[in-house]
Amino acid sequence: MEPASTASTKAALLLLAALFAVTVYRAATEPATADEAYSYDRFVRPPIGEVLAAYDPGNHLLYTLLAKRSIGFFRLSEFSLRLPSLLAGALYLWAVWLFSRRIPGPRALSLAMAAALALNPWTLDLYRSAWGYGLPVALALCALDLMLARPLPPRNLNLAAVCLGLAVADSPRFLLPAAALAAVGLMVFLRRGPTAARGLVVFAERFMVPAVATTFILLVLLLSHARSAARPGAPTRAEEAGARSLAQALRAIAGPRPVRIAASPSLEPLMNFYRARYRLGNWERVAVNSPAASFDYYVLAPPDAAWAEQKPARVLARAAGLVLAQ
Amino acid sequence: MAQFPSLAGVIFGAAFTIAVSLSAGMILLRRLRVTFLRGEAALFAFLAGSACLSLATFFLCLIHQARAAVFLGGGTVVIAWAAFTRGREARPKSPPAIPRAWFSFFIVVFAAFFLVYFFNALAPEISPDGSGYHLGNVARYWREGGFAWQYHSIYSHLSQGLEMLFLVAFAFGRHSSAALVHLAFQAALPLLVVCYGRRFGFLAPAVFAAILVYASPVVGIDGSSAYNDLAVATLLFAVFYLLQVWDETHSGNAIILIGLLAGFACVVKYSAGVILPFAASFVWFRCAPRTARARLEALLPLLLASAILVAPWLLRNWLWLGNPAAPFLNRWFPNPYYQPGEEHEYLAGLADYPHVKYYWEIPVQLTVLGGLVPGMVGPVFLLAPFALLALRHPHGRRLLIAAVVFAIPAYWNTEVRFLIPALAPLALAMGLAMANSWGVMPALALFQALVCWPSVLPLYCDQYAWRIRSIPVRAALRLEPEPVFLARHIPGYALRAAIERSVPPGQKLFSFAGRPEAYFDREIIVGYESSLGSRLERALRSAAAHGARRAATSELKGCGIAFLLVDDADSAAQDMHQFANLWGITQLAEANGTRFYRID
Fold first, then answer.
1. Which of B399, B381, B402, B382 is nearest to B390 (CA)?
2. In angstroms, what separates the C-alpha of B108 from chain A's closest C-alpha?
3. Which residues does chain A have within 8 Å of residue B443's beta carbon, measured at their own beta carbons?
4. How far is CA B259 from CA A250, B264, B292, in A?
5. Do A205 and B386 touch (CB under 8 A)?
6. Do A158 and B386 touch (CB under 8 A)?
7. Of B374, B367, B521, B388, residue with least CA distance to B448
């Protein structure tokens, strides 16, 4: 490992710090996406008892629990909802830094490794959004870094197991990558450790048991109620921005009087998010639009907007193809 | 004595029974000169003394002298004797201390759950089987001063080792006292588990196991009710424990104690009979020197000691019913009280998972949901496969074998409470397996304690799961009148006043389903519980289809039964309600979906 004060080290640190600053800026300024609003409305807002009552693959439980804390501390905003992701981003970039320093060879190679891992726009996007996927990626990289330590102390195996356990608990889809990483860990451990039989037992005790126990504690109650949940089609980025504009417009139009609002299925979580975000207690919980019921205002996505044109409804505002009608 | 005793009476009844058991056990242990470490001695004394008190009460029931004055006099003598002879033996050695963090953790969890269980046991007894046949038999023996030979039901034919202790407590404090006696066995189990770990050198796994078991929801509700499963679990684990102690010392007197406790376990519940072959095999294989003569010499005291407890119950049934194993093995011992076909039907119903569609649902039901089994052991037991890692340890192998053997009865009865005896050895094996996994045991123990807390359970378990639902402090302290609490929790209790008003003493009632007979002092013939009941049930069920309604009720009258209790859910209920005049019955009362009829 090279000394910490070389130019390539400084460059890597600068790059990672700059990326983190950009991520923080984006998290603070960009409007809520439909997925974020859906996660908030279905998993973060309800009491934990309701969350445990049904399993939805979109519920990243670890993220949900952290976001509940974050919103409890800082009140609801796009930033507070994304704060756990940002912390995961910091963890990821820190793990990138540690991992890149393990690369043998020329010093510039570490910088290249850090850049390759950190500059991926898809990965970076995970950390500015209130999605649960950033956490498992960051935790997995931490686990990999811990398992590659030389010599490999037992505590590293324990910590790596907890990291992978948390990653799977956050997103069960991460089970296969986690299993692959565990296999890597086992191979590394057996190459450096005692005989195969003894090594397997120690690996099971120090790695498999903590990993499974960690996942188990977080997921068992949720998975015991597993059942599928249907989700509406996702709106585009522009429509998400439009939903925020319409929510702000409706806040101004409706004022403090009680109102009943209906929204297209894809926009309903977004409107409920902004209802909570702007603390609009005079709005009844936004319902999914239904021809059988009557509402004061309608926020409609393009397929439903035509329906608003046919009805004797007054269009109050339009944004990104969305319609706010009365 | 009043029907509903005071709070002081309730607590005295339980405390007196426990004190007599403890004293009798201390005297016995001194006589046997079996040495224990500090902490173990009191627990084994309580268990051994319970066996002695149960046997003594059995003989009092035989001669119809099971009365409060006899219990009080005899018990006082035993307590005085134990106190007088105290201090003549050497003080027991102290076992290794539990690490401070684990000790504090255990004390907090144990104290919190103990309070919950204590208030539930102290509250009026409302459990289905507790208020049904367990205390129904006890109340009948109390009224008669001993065994009620003229009453026949499969539940009165079962051996009733623990009910003999309940009877002593019942004499002073009625139903809740009996539940508190069972609570003492429940509290003894985790303490025994901790003592086991202290003696054999795995403290943390033992504390972990004790928390897992004690916080388990089914252990909580069963142990704070007048059931017998926790007594069985504690006795089986105590026998296993003593076998390990004997394996170290090969003391002949320890074998006698093992035999006594194994025999007592068998008469508390037939399903605990698995302990006899288990103990005998252990002694056979671990005996030194390994000659046939030495093995037989070791086995003989074990079998004789267990026979002291088992033989009286077998003889009672043989002489009374003609079937020592009643209500089972009726094909081998034919008798007029229960037919082989009825036995087969009854056992087939117990062995079935009625609403479980897929096999993978069973572990989830047993551990987390608990709606169909009913009850659950707690989510952490889903990690039981980890216990296989304990196969590396000699103790781990023995614990796993014990867990498998103790779980065998669950094959014939799918209710989760039949798995309770296996929980302690299984949890200990899990603890041994996780001993080197840093941080896992405290995390899982804390998780089990949190998610098994009564107010947390509704977040995830089935709404119908059998579990503790509240901490009824007001009812426990008798600030809420007992009848009000009972009427709120036992649907059939509301008919009590009408039954006592209408049914003359000595008259019988017929019911398709079991009733809270512990609170009724009239004899109820339940359909499936005897040959007579089954015959009458068949007659009533087929009467509507064959137009023989009046003949069916006349048959009941011919058997001395002039009253009927019918749930609206029963198949004949609708017809009886609509054509009461054709049946020749008159409705006297109705409450909570149950109708009370008189046969005219």
1. B399
2. 21
3. 213-214, 217
4. 81, 8, 20
5. no
6. no
7. B367
**Tokens 């972990």, residue located:** B208
Give the C-alpha separation, A61 to A223, whole Å.
11
Angle among Cα A59, A60, A65 to the nearest 5 degrees reads: 105
Within 13 A of A140's CA, how many CA atoms are on the CB side? 21
- Which helix (H) or strand (E) covers residue A325, if one does? strand A322-325
**Rounded CA separation B444/A216 (Å):** 9
Report whether B595 contacts B577 (CB < 8 A).
Answer: yes
Nearest CA in chain B to A222: B460
Please list the residues that pair with B597 across neighbouring strands: B564, B587
CA distance B550 to chain A (A): 51
Say how far apart CA B313 and CA B317 lie, in whole Å.
Answer: 6
Query: By the CB < 8 Å criterion, does A200 face chain B?
Result: no
Whether the pTM exceeds 0.90: the reply is: no
How do the domains of chain B map onto residue ranges?
A: 7-337, 491-599
Residue B181 tokens read as 């006696």
Compute the distance between CA of residue A76 and CA of residue A218 in angstroms, rounded to an integer: 24
Q: What is the DSSP code string of B178-213?
A: HHHHHHHHHHHHHHHHHHHHHHHT-HHHHHHHHHHH
**Alpha carbon distances (Å) from B3 to A102, A318, B6, B9, B137:** 79, 77, 10, 12, 16
Neighbours of A194 (CB within 10 A): 12
Which residues in B have their CB inside 8 Å of a CB on A? Answer: 364, 368-369, 379, 382-383, 386, 389, 392, 433-434, 436-440, 443-444, 447, 451, 458-460
Look up tokens 């008159």; give the residue.
B586
Q: Do B379 and A158 touch (CB under 8 A)?
A: no
Q: What is the pLDDT along chain B (600 residues), one digit of tens a residue?
A: 446 889 999 999 999 999 999 999 999 999 998 888 888 999 999 999 999 999 999 999 999 999 999 999 999 999 999 998 876 666 777 888 888 999 999 999 999 999 999 999 999 999 999 999 999 999 999 999 999 999 999 999 999 999 999 999 999 999 999 999 999 999 999 999 999 999 999 999 999 999 999 999 999 999 999 999 999 999 999 999 999 999 988 888 999 999 999 999 999 999 999 999 999 999 999 987 778 888 999 899 999 999 999 999 999 999 999 999 999 999 999 999 999 999 999 998 888 777 777 788 899 999 999 988 889 999 999 999 999 999 999 999 999 999 999 999 999 998 999 999 999 999 999 999 999 898 999 999 999 999 999 999 998 898 889 999 999 999 999 999 999 999 999 988 999 999 999 999 888 999 998 899 999 989 999 988 999 999 999 999 888 777 788 899 999 988 889 999 999 888 888 899 989 999 999 999 998 889 999 998
Q: Whole-angstrom Cα distance, residue B6 to residue A317? A: 74
Distance CA B81, CA B84 (A): 5
Sequence-distant (≥ 6) Cβ neighbours of residue B73 within 8 angstroms = none
- What residue spans define the domains of chain A? 7-223, 237-325
Residue of B nearest to A47 (CA): B459
Whether residue A173 lies within 8 A of chain B, CB to CB, comes out as: no
SS3 at position A32 = coil
